[in-house]
Every structure is written in structure tokens, then in C-alpha cells.
Amino acid sequence: MGTVFSFDIHDARTAAIDAALSDAVAWLHHVDEVFSTYRSDSTISRLARGEIALDACSSEVREVLDRCARAARATEGWFSPTPGGALDPSGLVKGWAIERAWQMLREAGAHHVCVNGGGDLQLSGESAPGTPWRIGIAHPLRPGELYAVVTGNDLAVATSGTAERGAHILDPHTGAPAAGLASVTVVGSRLTPTDVYATAAFAMGERAEDWLEHLDGHEGFAVLPDGRSWRTRGFPGRFADT
Amino acid sequence: MRRAVVTAASTSTLIVLLLALKPHHTAGPVGDAAQPGVAPAPTPTGRPHKGAHPADGTFTGAPIRTTYGTVQVAATVKAGTLTAVKVLRAPSGNGRDREIAGYAVPRLTQEALSVHSAHIDAVSGASYTSAGYIRSLQSALDRAGV
């Protein structure tokens, strides 16, 4: 089963926005065809099998792998484009694809946009005039409940955790599933790095708090397996400190 | 979608189902109906359909209750291919939070949240709602005979 993407556009409808929406949907399908590790004929699968060289790949493939390499450096190796040993840049591709789709809509004149890919979000503008977007953060330990709400206008929000798909993020240093946190949410301005940082922070576990505290341009909070939580100091708002 | 009703034609929402980038490893509510990598969505190549062409038209899926509220979609089918999905009902509200001013920086609040009264625009994290979309879409496709 794939991921559900939704586009929530709160601008007056125009032909340009309609066209951009079609283009954005086509873009997501294109990304799937090129980057899916579940399609044996995708460029990434062929690259992983050594059937084609990186030089023969499109510029977007090289861009993604370059971003993966930078993400691995920026996270001290806690994000890895080879999480199980084989090439799999999916952890970066989804956020990158969402951010690009959002950008396509922005360039077409849509200002109030929320693009959601399986719970990772890139949004801008307002939900309604004078009303910022309100993004619920799923409670990782109590299915169906929210743990907190992030309110803002221009945000990228990514959550990594065990709630949706079980333990699926591996500690790249040990190969074992990461288990130090129940979930971690990172908020930034662009989803490509924000999503990567959420994945890396989840793999880090306890160390993520100090790492996120010193990460420029991003804030985060986490829920621990016992239900306690922490957040970075730059996160304003009402929050029950534990 | 309630917000669409409130703000009439100025709002549009499109739900796109696809991508095996991060597949769910847990058994989904539609079980075998969705295979990894098979996207029941308006791909240029379309989707293989069974037997004769099913009828063209728009088919309304069953309302699916999720923990975030009820989700219902309508699927438009042309020549055996899903060409559009319209969200008829989605779990978001509009009203209580008019008093909230715009914030220059994101705010994190922890509230006594019952999901139905939270008035949220989207959820980050577990996509229980996604499962609702998929189930409602599947029922719409079943009715279409796709």
C-alpha cells in the first residue's frame, strides 16, 4: 500500500492553480516511477543493482543522491541513504517530492496551501483569513489521540515514530530498529531537511534532544516510550513540561 | 468537506493516492486490494482493469469512520481508469479557532484534545485518516466495478 498525498488549497480557484495541481500530481507519479525501491524497473532499483551508472541517471536522481550525502553529513550519519545496506533514498525523497509539489502550486499563485504526504507536511499561508494552520501531532502511544498542536503559517512539519508503521527506522550505526523515542516531530521551513532531521532524530533516540536544540532553523519535540515528552526551547506556546 | 461548504468555491482539496515510497508494512484495512507499487490513481498509463470496461461515472464511496472523523470520497472513472477523487467528507473543522491570531513562529500547544473537537487542518504522524481515505476509495471503486 502506498502513501496518501493530499493537497489542501485555500485560494480562489484559477486555471493556473488547476494546471499546477495536475502537474503536481503527475510529478508525484513521476517520482514514484523513478525512485520507488518497490518497482524493479525504477531508476533507483536499477542503480542499486549496478545496471546503470550514476552518470547515466537524470539530474534529479543525482540531485537526490547529492542531498542524501549532505543529509548524512548534517546528521552525523544518523540519516543514511543506505539504511538496510542497500541504496534506498526514500527517507529523503518523500519530503523532497512534497516540497517540490508545494513549490509548483506556489509558483502558480496559490498562497494558502497544505500538502500532506502520509503525515509529513509542507504548508504556507493561512487556513482561513486571520487563522493560521493547525496541525495536530498524533499521539504515538494512544492511537486516535493527538499529543499536541502546532500552529503556524509557513511551516514544514515531519513526524517520525513507531505509531504508523511499527518500528521501521533503523539505527544506521547498529542496524537495529531505533527505540529510544516513541515519536519525534521536527518543524522547519522546508520539508526536505525537516523530514530528514525527524528521521535522524528518531534514530538518535535520547541524544536527539541536545542535537535538535543546537540545530539552526528547526524546532522539535518528542514523546518518550513512557509518555513523557520534551521540546526544544525555541518552541513557543503552551505545553505541559514534564 | 465541511470547510469547502463554508467557503464555497474558494477552497479545493484533492486527495491523491499513490506511491510506494514508504509503504505501510502493517496490514492495511483494504488488505489484498492494494499491492505495493500499484497506484490506483490517475497515472498516464492508467491501471489495468478487469474484464470489460466498467461504466463511466462518479461513484460515491462509503463513509468511513476514523478516529479523526468520518472520511468519504467519490471516485470518477473513465474507460476503466480512475481519473479523479473528490473528498466529500474529511475530518477537519472550522470555527472555534477564529480568535487565534496569526503567528510569525510556529507554536506548539498541548491541549485537552479529543480529536473530534480539535479543529485541526491536518495531522502529522500516524496517518489513520489515510486508511479512511483508502477504504472509502476502495468501496467507491468496488461500486464502479474497476
From TrEMBL, chain A:
Keywords: FAD, Flavoprotein, Magnesium, Metal-binding, Transferase. Its cofactor is Mg(2+). SUPFAM superfamilies: ApbE-like. InterPro entries: ApbE, ApbE-like_sf. It catalyses: L-threonyl-[protein] + FAD = FMN-L-threonyl-[protein] + AMP + H(+). GO terms for molecular function: metal ion binding; transferase activity. Its EC number is 2.7.1.180. It comes from the Bacteria. The keyword Metal-binding applies. It is an enzyme of class 2 (transferase). This is FAD:protein FMN transferase. It comes from Streptomyces natalensis ATCC 27448.
From TrEMBL, chain B:
It comes from Streptomyces natalensis ATCC 27448. This is FMN-binding protein. SMART domains: FMN_bind. InterPro entries: FMN-bd. Residues 28-61 are annotated as: Disordered. Residues 67-144 form the FMN-binding domain. Keywords: Signal. Residues 1-27 form the signal peptide. One of its GO terms (molecular function) is FMN binding. It holds the Pfam family FMN_bind. GO terms for cellular component: membrane. The keyword Cell membrane does not apply.
